[in-house]
């Protein structure tokens, strides 16, 4: 067991989210629907984990791009959903 995990076990919920927790909550974080505690945990994780930070940046760029369109391209939405599903399946093994 990693030292960080052991400390968290004795100290309670960690201040920084794990990759798995960040992945499961990134959409809520970007949408502003997460509670304050989880929002802070995800924000700290995204600042320190390059991989998850880049994923969040990609989601945000897609979200902004779609929001700026008057007509939503149905094919684009399907590709984004497929991307999200693949990402979810590929990252189920994260700690």
Helix-residue proportion: over 70%
Q: What would the principal axes of the Cα set say about the shape? A: globular
Largest sheet: none
Enumerate the spans where pLDDT stays under 50 for 5 or more consecutive residues: 1-12
The H-and-E topology, N to C, reads as HHHHH
Q: What is the terminal separation in angstroms?
A: 12 Å
Beta-strand segment tally: 0
Q: What is the CA-atom radius of gyration, in angstroms?
A: 15 Å
Residue-averaged pLDDT, rounded? 78
Q: Quote the beta fraction.
A: under 5%
Total helical segments: 5
Number of domains: 1
Assembly type of the shown chains?
single chain
Structural class estimated from helices and strands? mainly alpha
Characteristic key phrases:
0% strand; mainly alpha; disordered N terminus; 95 residues; single chain; 75% helix
Would you give an account of this structure?
This protein has one domain. Helix 2 packs across helix 3, helix 2 packs parallel to helix 4 and helix 3 packs across helix 4. The chain has 95 residues and is mainly alpha-helical. The protein is 75% helix and 0% strand.
How do the helices and strands line up, and which of them pair or pack?
Blueprint: H1 3-11, H2 19-31, H3 36-48, H4 50-68, H5 74-90
Helix pairs in contact: 2-3, 2-4, 3-4
